[in-house]
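User: Modeling request: complex.
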Amino acid sequence: MAQSERESGRETLLTNQWASVRAKLQQEVGDVEYRTWLKQVSLAGQDGDELTLMLPTRFLRDWVSKEYGSLITSIWQTENTSIRRVDIRTQPARGTAPNLAEPASNPVAAVRPEARADVIAPLDQRFTFDTFVVGKPNEFAYACARRVAEAPATQGFNPLFLYGGVGLGKTHLMHAIAWELSNNPRHGKPVSVAYMSAEKFMYRFINALRNQSTLEFKNELRSVDVLMIDDLQFLIGKDNTQEEFFHTFNALVDAGKQIVISADKSPSDLSGLEDRLRTRLGCGMVADLHATTFELRISILEAKALRAGVDVPAKVMEFLAHKITSNVRELEGALNRLVAHANLFDRQITLETAHEVLHDVLKAFDRRVTIQEIQKKVAEHWNIKISEMSSARRSRNVARPRQVAMYLAKQLTSKSLPDIGRHFGDRDHTTVMHAVARVTALMGTDAAFAEDVELLRRMLES
Ligand code: ADP
Ligand code: MG
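Assistant: Request completed. Predicted assembly structure:
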C-alpha cells in the first residue's frame, strides 16, 4: 500500500471514530448540553498518541476542557486505544471574532418561553431568615442581609458582597433576602428578584450568544429590581462573561437597583478578577461569614433538631459540634443521618449510636488533616522549629504554639487525648487537656490570639 493511501485510510478511520465518540458524548451528557457546548468541537488530527480537538473561542475551549475534558478523553480511549492524551485547542482566528453562535438555524423560539424561568433559579424553601441561626461569626452578614431585604438599594449597602468558606450560609442568606423581598411588595408593586449562580449566568450568556439573543438576555436582567449572583469566583478567568457582568452590574446600579453577590473570598482576594469590577464590587458593603464557633454549631444543631422534632441528647450535639467543624452543611448532614437512622430502627439517639452511625464520616474527617500537618502549619505560623512540638522546652514562645497545635488536633481530628499526647513528645493526656482548656480560655480574652487560631484552623481545613 502506498504511503498516501495508508494515510487516507487512517484518516477515514479517525473520522469514523470521531463520529462514534460524538454520539457517545451526546448520549452521555444529553441533548441540551451537547448542543450548547460540544457540537462545535471539531477534530484536528492525531499525532502519535495525542489527539487534537478544536473549538472556535478560548472561552469555549476553557469551559469544555474543564467540564468535559476527562469524559472526552476516556471516551476516545475506549474508541482508539492508541490515544493517551486529548488536547483541546482554539482554532486559529478565521475571519470575524467571537464566532460563538452556530448558524442561526437553532429553534430560537423554543428557548424564549422558558427564558424567564431560567433566569430566576428556584429558591430553597428552607433558606429563610427564620431558619438562619445567628451567632458571632455571621451576625454582621446576617444584619446586612436583613437590611437589604428591608430597604433594597440603600446607599452603602449596594452592592452587598457576602463572602466566606464553603457551607457557611452564603446561599442561605441570599435566598432569605429573595424570599423576603418577593413576599413584600414595595410601593404597591411586587419586587422582581433574579437569583442565579455565576455558573448559570455564564451558561445563559453563552446560550444567548449562540441564539443571537443577547439583547433579550441583557434586557431581561436589566429589568429586575434585585440581581443576585452566587459564587462569583466562578467567573474568574472567564473574561467575556466578566465583561458582560460588569456592564449589567453598572446598568443596574445606575438605575438604582440592588445587587447581591457571594463569593468564597473578599473582592480584594479574588485574584483574576478585572480591577474595575473588583473596585465596584468592593464599594458597597462587604460582609464576611466567619468559620463557625463551637457555640454556633451547638445552636444550629439545637435549632435543626427542634425543627425536625427529634430529641437529640446534649452530649450527642456536643460530640457532633466538636467533630464536624468545617461547615454547616456537613454538620447538618451528620445530624440528618442520625435522625434517619433513629427513625429507621426506631432507636433513641445516643452517643453510642452516633459513633456507630457516623463512623465513616468521622474517619473521613481524620483523613482530611493529620496531626503532623497541624504541627507544621502552627510551627510555621509562629516561626518555630517543628521539632519544638515534641521537645521538652517549656518557654512561652514554644509552649504556646504547642498548646495551640494540641488544641487544633483535638478539634480537627478524632484522635483521643492520649493519642494526641503521644504525637507531642509522649506527653500525658492531662497535658493535652490542659492545653485545650488554656487555649479555649485565652481565645475568650485575647481577640488577636483567637483570630490567629481561627486563621490556622481555616487554613488547615481548606
Ligand atoms: P454556602 O453557600 O456558604 O456554601 P449554604 O448557604 O449552602 O452555604 O449553607 C449550607 C447549609 O448549611 C444549608 O443547608 C444552610 O441552610 C445551612 N446553614 C449554614 N449556615 C446556617 C445558619 N447560620 N443557620 C442555619 N443553617 C445554616
Ligand atoms: Mg452556596
